[in-house]
Inverse folding.
């Protein structure tokens, strides 16, 4: 794995968007709020609606609530591994799936992990009884 310390977090930097490779970008913001802002900008150039992860004190609800209110992602994982957590394989309550819905932020119809219920046709009969 290669880690590249980066200062630019917009689409002009080829290391900024999500990469399916062994190259990770490392950013060192001075405070939590700026870290969340950088995270939002990174998500905005290649992952709206997808997944974001926060590693923090699980009792720090101020940080968790702030993170959740800012990130435009359907899946917010707290203290879970990103790669296994996002696809529901870390016993986190998400439906195990290799197809992640990104909701309207990402141009998808679903904002949850796509499972068998999304692939079946359901018929609903509605009406008044006499």
């Amino acid at each position: 794995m290669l880690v590249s310390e980066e200062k630019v977090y917009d689409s002009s930097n080829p290391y900024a968007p999500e990469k399916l490779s062994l190259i990770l970008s490392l950013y060192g913001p001075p405070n939590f709020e700026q870290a969340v802002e950088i995270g939002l900008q990174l998500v905005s150039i290649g992952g709206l609606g997808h997944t974001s992860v926060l590693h923090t004190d699980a009792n720090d609800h101020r940080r968790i609530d702030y993170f959740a209110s800012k990130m435009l992602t359907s899946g917010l994982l707290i203290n879970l591994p990103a790669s296994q957590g996002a696809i529901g394989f870390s016993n986190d309550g998400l439906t195990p799936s290799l197809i992640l819905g990104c909701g309207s932020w990402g141009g998808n119809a679903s904002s949850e992990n796509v499972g068998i219920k999304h692939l079946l046709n359901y018929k609903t009969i509605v009406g008044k009884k006499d």
Notes: The mean pLDDT is 86. The chain is about 20% helix and 15% strand.
